[in-house]
Amino acid sequence: MAHFSAMKWIVILLFIWSTSAQQCDQPVTAARFDCYPEPFVSQEKCLARNCCWKPTNQFPKNRSKNSLEIDVPWCYYPRDFPTYQIKTNESTAFGQRLTIVKQQSTYMPNEILNLTVDLIYETAQRFRLRIYDSTKKRYEVPLEVPVIEKKVNITDYEVSLSQEPFAILVKRKSTGMTIFDTSVAPLIYADQFIKFSSYLSSPFLYGLGEHQQSLLIDVTNQWNKLTFWTRDTPPAQHVNLYGVHPFYINVEMKTNMLTNFHGQFFLNSNAMDIDLQPLPAISYTTIGGIIDLYLFTGPTAQDVIQQYWDVIGKPTMPPYWSLGFHLCRYGYNNINNLRAVIQRMHDAEFPYDVQWTDIDAMSSNLDFTYDQTNFNGLPDLVHSLQSEGKHYVNIIDCGISSTQSSGTYPPYDDGLKRGIFITKFNSTEPIIGQVWPGLTVFPDFTNASTVEWWTNIATTFHDTIPFDGIWIDMNEPSNLIDGSHDGCTNNSLDRPPFVPHVLGDSLSAKTLCPSAQHALSSHYNLHNMYGYFEAKATNLALKTIRHKRPFVLSRSSFAGSGQYTAHWTGDNGATYEDMYFSISDILSFNMFGMPNVGADICGFRDDTNEELCTRWMQLGAFYPFMRNHNGAQKDQDPAVFSWTSQQIMKQALIMRYSLAPFWYTLHYRAAIASETLVQPLHFEFSNDNKTLGIDRQFLIGRAILVSPNLVSINNTTMVHAYIPEDVWYEFPSGVKVKVVGVFVDLDTPLEKINIHVRGGFIIPMQIPGTNLMIGRGNPFTLLVAQSALGNATGNLFWDDGDSIDSIETKSYNYFEFLLISNKLTINAIVANYKDSPMRLELVRVLGVSKPVTSVTVNEKDHKGFFYNIPDQDTNRKNTCTSFRKTQSTLSFILGYSI
Question: Per its UniProt record, what InterPro entries does this chain match (predicted)?
């Protein structure tokens, strides 16, 4: 300990005496709440905050990874730490309004001692808590959310208050389960430091992105710190990444054999840390804005997601062609290499829909240009692709070059004239950073004039190269230098009193100075939303340019971005570990309202290998968004590999393309009914504890189970997969699984990916074409998987695949399928799309329990049917054999328009 003066010792002893040992007596270390989250804590610094100091038994360097001592705060709040008390409490039309006051400041500068608390009873399942300065307007997130002026009469939750100290308790009425309780730690509310905590219902959570982590966040035996500040960095664990989604789903303990879920969304766009501890409890620490917290009571996980999407907005409906296979790389380098890839994909007869180019196709890395030397003929190539039913997407970075000669680069000249670039602090001059073209400025997408400028320059480029979609990258925003070319200021925005644990230890690390100014507010407040506003502007620009449904792909994202854009998970590595984490990524982003998501198949960084790429193409065929993309390494398009691997990849692609109508219908259901495209097994089988946290398998919709091999065959060809307790059939063989509700070892050689169809569902399919647009006119098929009772349901959405407003104008067809008592009925709920005939050619029924002697179609005998008994599955090991010979498949060939 440092040498103290006599006066300092007297102050410390007086504190210890006045506080009493009982206030610091906390025998359960998991119940300590960190009073000194900054680095380099010491006893002197801790006691200066009037907090408790008690080192744990083990020093950091000697701690075991499995020890509960890891990250236990040595400096923590005493039980009588000063906090707020309720001064007034009045009823309002929306619920209650409180004023809370604190008698003394504590340890952060500019502490706000007089606060207003709004308790808003928005819906039966949604409660909103807002805490803000009573006297001064503060920054609030410019996200359009529902405004509720009248309290709902009946709720699933009950709210109670503690007078002194102030605390809020929210319980589920039906079970009494606590879903929110702030009494665990004091509320700290300063100008640039807001911290509050709550009990968790259990140590099991899903969500809190964007981070590279397992699907289930389990804090049973560990402390976990997650940081939220958008950052351009290759995905790695324990660092802040490209997006900010402070939303989680908490698993509640079982009651009456039922598992409930609830969720929280912290509507705050400032830099923040979220700490999880094994009490279990959660603490939010943000450096700006207000407390604006939503609680969703579910009770199912899908209910929670729907309630969350009601706040942030439902995802956009993508164009049909975007459901196909996309191909890209950084490093085509010239038009001849690009043509060679397209030709070999054609010669190998791979279905694919979208060709992309990266920044190497630009002229000197300048946005809205192309290299007319190395990529001479690119416009003609794009026209050629489009004439074959394919599409083209180009990349646009947000950094606009500021060093081109005056009059030679319209994006900069016009933007400067309009004044639409982010500016320096207290200046009208644009802030200067550095990206791929050199020194750059950055468009301010919160400025209304920027959308018009963005649309105009994109339109001019589209006149040269008629792109079909836009890929917006580097939009965290990324900066190759810290802050700006001129450095940052020393004010409190650039040097706040507390900095969350961001990569680089500074808010300006590889991005702009927080003090930079947008039209709406400072970059300090809006940094995390930069990608959100760029995606919104790009979506609007594409609608204006193409008059068709837009396709945007964005790296950076914020809550609500799914209304405007798809997402990919960034610059991953060509490793089996990255392939594994991709499953958690796509499942999490489906929770976050961005269901059209995928990872760079085969890996972006480093050289892939044939086995890894083959496995990844199999898995990627079941991503919502499927793109193979890599950097300046060797080629990894499917046609570059051996004939054997090509056939395996092609088979996976054919499965994807045959399921395109099913995928498209899922997108429709997401857009209108807030249903996820993919989901964890635990969300569908929540009362089965064995499904908790499974993240090496996933469900597409509710009907298809995907169990990929995520390791090299040198390690194993077995997949240890869980088959939930229900009826399942292997796809595409139709073999029925005999033993369910257990983990089984599935033999999975390189040529196989395990796909199972769930009984009780009808899957609309289509005979594939070389791309989705060519295949649109092909006949449809129905795969009918019978439940244990012989029933099944399904649906199909179909329109022209491209119109902006087909859903709003009901210019589509929507069919519902029902199998009951051996009768299949097709009901046309909406039948307004007439431009392309829809022909049903084949119906395949799985799980037929006895020989079929007759089939009737439209009350007439139908002769074109056959049934068969699938072969025994010789590949399945251990307990799960396959299919009883009494179970067979009925198929009947039709030729009917639907």
Answer: Gal_mutarotase_sf_dom, GH, Glyco_hydro_31_AS, Glyco_hydro_31_C, Glyco_hydro_31_CS, Glyco_hydro_31_TIM, Glyco_hydro_b, P_trefoil_CS
Q: What angle do CA 609, 615, 618 make, to 5 degrees?
A: 135
Q: In 3D, which of 559, 553, 484, 497 has the Cα closest to residue 523?
A: 484
Q: Which of 476, 571, 600, 730 is catalytic?
A: 476
pLDDT at 836 over 90: no
Q: Half-sphere exposure (CA, 13 Å, Cβ side) for 633?
A: 15
Catalytic residue of the set 210, 473, 534, 600: 473
CA distance linking residue 566 with residue 563, whole number of Å: 9
Using an 8 Å Cβ cutoff, are 71 and 223 in contact? yes
DSSP track, 651-685: HHHHHHHHTHHHHHHHHHHHHHH---SEE-HHHHS
Burial 169-191 (b: 16+ CB within 10 A, else e): bbbbeebebebbbbebbbbbbbb
* pLDDT given for residue 477 in this prediction: 98
Q: How far apart are the first and last CA of the chain?
A: 82
Quote the pLDDT of residue 21. 72
What is 6-76's CATH number, 2.40.440.10, 4.10.110.10, 2.60.40.420, 3.20.20.70? 4.10.110.10
**What confidence tier does 416 reach under pLDDT thresholds 50, 70, 90?**
very high
Which of 2.60.40.1760, 2.60.40.10, 2.40.160.20, 2.60.120.10 would CATH assign to domain 85-312?
Answer: 2.60.40.1760
Third-level CATH fold of 668-897: Immunoglobulin-like (2.60.40)
Q: Is 476 part of the annotated catalytic residue set? A: yes
Active site residue 805: no
How many CB atoms within 10 Å of residue 848?
21
Rg of the chain over Cα atoms, rounded to whole angstroms, equals: 29
